[in-house]
Specification:
Chain lengths: ~325, ~475
């Protein structure tokens, strides 16, 4: 009798225990999608592509299989959440319109953190909203062309002094901001007879003021946050191209040929370098941010940042050249 | 003092039910560890398998079970249980009609399914294989300890090997000759303050059936292949209590005794056990350096299994444990022999003095375990509520963050334990040296060994505390 009891207990333990665990797992799945986060070298997001119908809630159970990650949806007000190792975080997303949305990691999880992205395809009968081409496309700019400023100021121009000059001499025709590089703007001013009495340094101050007047403190504050979260790891907190991941990007091979992408040989741009920065117009920088560096290791941010965020970031990048813009 | 004279103890130990329930609970935890390792989160700190095996179980084993109960864990270990049940064809006991006779039990009289009941080969009737299996696990331990899937595979492998061994060989051959854990538990069980012994050997001599070894309707013949009347050390006694059940003369005692009572016993000292002492001593030092030390490249090498740095690490590990440490100790003992003018053979002295490293080794392992057990124990509560990392919260503790315990006290405990281990080792060395020598000669013989133990203690103190 005791033996039968003991055998029953063993059977209950092995079969019952296994079935209970299996059932609990199955019940826990319900309608949620479990999204596993791993460092990009180990696979990134799994699954990386999700599909949901417009108007239907998409329940995600987020968990990290290695280090701390973050989850955010590009071009969205959805707050980022942390994805902790071995823990589940639930997020429910609902999309009003069809389209392709990008989700991405918001924590510096490793040298290839920037590659940790996935997409959510939202289906529906409603037509997708047409998207206007960005300014650099409209202008037909080759954003990969080499640019070097021929004229640079001896010291960082001052927006404050520039503002005083413009107020004293309002007759000067101020160049258009987004389509001009600072150097081009300075050249325009230099060739304006009305500004003949201005020194070179004063004209650089005026350029700094033009760049300041095309942004707001709020936009710069938002850009500062975005820069710290997304750009500083490579470009450095002070913009010097000396972030902690500078040169640390691992070689990433394509699936077919196994060839290195080559991005690891290109150093991040030094935003404190006037030769480079003063030759680039806001439209060029917008293009670089939207499209990415194409093989340089610089990721594309077009699907992550909103247009306002991108322009704010562009303005922020010039603060490494101009005093008092911030 | 015979604990069986205390009320309730004897019936509690004689009955199979309490032991069976404990084995069953341990088996449930063991299976859960395998399942969670295979199907749960790969994050070690959040996986029941890693947290419960390498933090909770290890803490209980090294800080409580081994120092105070010797092979107490072996008596409820779930790993050999399924194999043993299959081997015997029964779970609880031999039953009234079962004339179980251990090694001599025939296939015809056994209830078991595939009872080959082969005798374990004579050449392997030692712990050399256990030394090898421990080293094998130790070489991969950085991966095993941190990756739940690897932990699960290793645990499952233990289970399969144990079952397979039970189906082919008689008794608990896996525990006695193969288990990497059982090897060092046996070595350190010599220090425990409890022992299973016979009360009066004369009673055993007059008992012709020797049911403690051959088995009876009351219980099985010693599963550990030990002849209880011949027991002088704890090393190979699994404290399974079968002899208590089979002895018709009530001649078995569970004695409370001084710590380390087996160490001065000269009988049964062997080279394989001496080797185990070196392996354990060296492994404690290497683990302290790799797992707790500040050397990232060393950690990375130990973790990168199969790579060139790992091969270098493995070679260094084996060289240190199998050559450098024993070689140094050999020189130490040789110096003592020269100083004292002892005429005892060098090998005999070497093996005998190696037993002084048993308390030193246990102290090293306790101190090493203290480093991470308290610091990481908060993971246990979280893993208990969410063993698979699937988002469960069974006991409301899944959300608990990592919070180290007693970190201020730990270094003091470690220093105390290491110093205690050193003193114990020194006294043991002195006592062993005095076996066939006068006081002055014994002192000279043991001084180099004591110096060796002090150097090791200081080195480990540096690794763990400084």
């Amino acid at each position: 009798m005791k033996e039968i009891f003991a055998r029953s207990l063993v059977v209950i333990l092995i079969l019952g225990g296994t079935l209970t665990v299996g059932l609990a797992w199955w019940l826990g799945q319900n309608d949620a999608v479990t999204l596993h986060a791993r460092m990009p070298e180990s696979g990134g997001w799994t699954p990386a592509d999700l599909t949901v119908e417009a108007g239907q809630p998409l329940r995600l159970r987020l968990t990290s299989d290695d280090v701390l990650h973050g989850f955010a949806l590009g071009q969205s007000d959805q707050p980022a959440v942390d994805v902790e190792p071995g823990r589940m975080t639930e997020v429910t997303l609902t999309f009003d319109r069809p389209g392709t949305y990008t989700f991405y990691c918001t924590r510096w999880c490793g040298p290839n953190h920037w590659r940790m992205r996935g997409t959510i395809t939202v289906t529906g009968e409603e037509a997708e909203e047409p998207v206007a081409p960005p300014l650099y496309v409209q202008l037909g700019l080759d954003i990969d062309a080499a640019r070097e400023a021929q004229v640079i100021p001896a010291e960082n121009p001052s927006a404050k002094r520039g503002k005083e000059l413009v107020e004293q001499l309002p007759i000067i025709q101020l160049p258009t901001y987004r389509t001009h590089s600072p150097e081009a703007a300075w050249q325009d001013l230099r060739s304006d007879p009305a500004a003949a009495s201005f020194t070179d340094r004063q004209l650089w101050d005026v350029v700094a003021f033009i760049w300041q007047s095309n942004t707001t403190p709020q936009a710069l504050a938002e850009a500062e946050r975005l820069y710290a979260q997304n750009c500083a790891a490579c470009h450095g907190e002070s913009g010097g191209g000396d972030g902690i991941f500078n040169g640390g990007q691992a070689q990433v091979q394509d699936e077919a040929g196994g060839m290195p992408s080559g991005h690891e040989t290109v150093a991040p741009t030094d935003f404190t370098d006037p030769v480079r920065m003063l030759s680039a117009s806001p439209a060029v920088l917008q293009g670089k941010i939207l499209r990415g560096g194409m093989g340089t290791g610089m990721p594309m941010w077009g699907s992550i940042f909103t247009e306002d965020q991108t322009w704010a970031l562009v303005s922020y990048l010039y603060t490494f050249q101009f005093e008092e813009v911030r | 003092m015979n604990l069986l004279r205390l009320p309730l103890i004897k019936p509690l130990l004689r009955s199979r039910l309490p032991q069976f329930i404990l084995v069953l609970l341990a088996l449930a935890g063991f299976l859960l560890a395998i399942l969670s390792g295979l199907f749960g989160t790969p994050v070690g700190s959040r996986n029941f398998g890693v947290v419960f095996v390498w933090i909770a179980w290890w803490a209980i084993l090294m800080l409580v079970a081994v120092p105070f109960l010797g092979r107490g864990w072996c008596s409820i270990c779930p790993i050999p249980a399924p194999g043993e049940w299959l081997q015997r064809g029964r779970i609880l006991g031999p039953g009234r009609d079962s004339g179980d006779s251990g090694r001599r039990r025939s296939r015809e009289t056994s209830d078991s399914i595939i009872p080959l009941n082969r005798r374990w080969p004579n050449r392997f009737r030692n712990i050399w294989l256990q030394n090898g299996s421990f080293l094998l696990v130790a070489l991969f331990s950085t991966v095993i300890l941190t990756q739940p899937r690897v932990t699960a595979v290793v645990l499952a492998a233990f289970l399969f090997v144990a079952v397979g061994t039970s189906l082919v060989f008689e008794r608990r051959a896996f525990c006695r000759y193969l288990c990497p854990v059982g090897g060092f538990i046996g070595l350190y069980s010599q220090l425990a303050p409890v022992e299973v012994r016979v009360v009066d050997t004369a009673v055993c001599a007059a008992h012709t059936e020797k049911t403690c070894y051959t088995g009876s309707a009351g219980g099985y013949g010693c599963p550990w292949d030990v002849f209880p009347p011949g027991l002088v050390k704890n090393t190979y006694c699994g404290t399974c209590m079968e002899c208590l059940r089979t002895c018709p003369h009530d001649n078995i005692a569970v004695n409370l005794r001084p710590f380390g009572a087996d160490l001065p016993v000269a009988r049964g000292r062997k080279l394989d056990e001496a080797c185990k002492a070196f392996i354990m001593l060296g492994a404690a030092a290497v683990y302290a350096a790799v797992l707790l030390g500040p050397w990232g490249s060393l950690k990375l090498a130990a973790y990168s299994v199969g790579t060139l740095p790992w091969l270098a690490y493995a070679a260094a590990f084996l060289t240190l444990i199998l050559l450098a440490l024993p070689g140094l100790f050999w020189l130490t003992v040789w110096s003592g022999k020269r100083l004292s003018g002892s005429v005892r053979p060098m090998k005999e002295l070497f093996v005998a003095q190696s037993y002084a490293l048993v308390p030193l080794g246990l102290a090293a392992w306790v101190a090493f375990s203290l480093s991470f057990v308290f610091a990481n124990f908060s993971y246990v509560l979280a893993a208990l509520s969410d063993p698979f990392g699937w988002g469960w919260d069974l006991f409301g503790t899944a959300g608990l963050g990592w919070s180290p315990w007693l970190t201020g006290l730990t270094p003091f405990l470690q220093v105390g334990v290491l110093l205690g281990g050193f003193v114990w080792a020194a006294l043991t060395s002195r006592k062993i040296a005095a076996e066939k020598a006068d006081d002055a000669q014994a002192l000279k013989l043991s001084v180099p060994v004591i110096a060796f133990c002090m150097a090791f203690t200081l080195a480990l103190m540096g690794l763990l505390v400084a």
